[in-house]
Specification:
single chain, two-stranded antiparallel ribbon, globular, 5-stranded antiparallel beta sheet, alpha+beta, 3 helices
Length: about 160
Amino acid sequence: MVIGKRNGTLRQVVTLSMMTSSEPLYLFVYGTLRSGFDHPVRNEIENDIEFIGISQIKGKLYDNGDYPAALPAEENENSFIKGEVLKLNNTEVLKALDEYEGYNANRPDQSEYYRKQENIVLPDGRKIKAWVYWYNFPIKGKQRIRHKDYLDYLKTKKIA
């Protein structure tokens, strides 16, 4: 286990070798890896994932140019991010996504995103733990996205 600290927040990072293979792996995606995007990385992992459903997570979105930056919401904040829950059929998918997201488990404090398991409630009411990639760099100067849904935000951004 590697502990990372950025912006005064201590983060616990679980490496792939620490996960048991008997537990299903879930991933919450909110940006360019969602099914509404035609992204090469999404296309590359398509055969190794299973769509579980739409959900949301407590967090805030920021416009980071070509992709969103998501930060966990503070305890007292009522801010949510809409996304999709995917079941990963093997850990190799996480390795590929770690590279895509700029996440290095050995140097989480220097990674653009860090990966953390969060509690997610599925549309059918089941509660699961899913991996989420949270933005790890300063957000100063980045525009806050007030929409819960990054895809909806992009549609309105193109119209404006």
